[in-house]
Specification:
mainly alpha, two-stranded antiparallel sheet
């Protein structure tokens, strides 16, 4: 029987130790919550209250409160010309000048204001060409066409395109396009 009594005593001590550890763990958890979580809960409760008040204002007023949308200012503050002028005052002095024109009103610049008074806005294809330039352009075009035609007729008088020089196989063509100095020319 002594052995059984010792076992019961050991069991009771073990249960007491377990209960003590459990109580210590619960207390440690409560202390942690008190120190770390409780302040966050207070802030959360304040945020919830503020959000609920804002929702109530939206429901009752039918729109979001102006203070929430416009940084504390009513919409009329931003919509008036005087408010805009006050906001822009001092940003660019009206006495500053651009090409001698004050910035107190709209500034319109002409091409002469920026040094382009003598600029010609005619497109290149519409600009006049001198007689000498025109003659030179025509001569180059005629020369290129004549040279290409002569070369093609001299090298290939039958207007045949050689496919295989070793076999001498050719194909007759009624007309062909040749390229001379980057210009496409028709052989017919």
């Amino acid at each position: 029987m002594g052995d059984l009594a010792d076992r019961v005593t050991d069991r009771e001590q073990l249960e007491a130790t377990f209960e003590t550890l459990k109580a210590q763990g619960i207390q440690a958890s409560l202390d942690y919550i008190q120190i770390n979580v409780a302040p966050q809960i207070v802030n959360l409760q304040q945020s919830i209250t503020l959000a609920q008040n804002q929702i109530d204002q939206i429901i009752i007023g039918g729109k979001a409160p102006d203070a929430l949308k416009f940084g504390g200012q009513l919409p009329a503050y931003y919509a008036t010309a005087s408010a805009l002028a006050d906001g822009l005052a001092g940003k660019v002095p009206t006495t500053r000048k651009v090409n001698g024109k004050e910035l107190s009103g709209d500034v319109t610049l002409a091409k002469g204001d920026v040094g382009l008074a003598n600029a010609d806005n005619t497109s290149d294809k519409d600009k006049p060409v001198s007689d000498l330039q025109g003659a030179a352009i025509d001569a180059v075009a005629q020369s290129a066409s004549t040279k290409a035609s002569r070369r093609n007729r001299h090298l290939n008088p039958a207007f045949q395109v050689c496919q295989d020089r070793a076999a001498g196989a050719t194909i007759d063509v009624a007309s062909a396009l040749y390229i001379f100095d980057g210009v496409f020319l028709n052989s017919t």
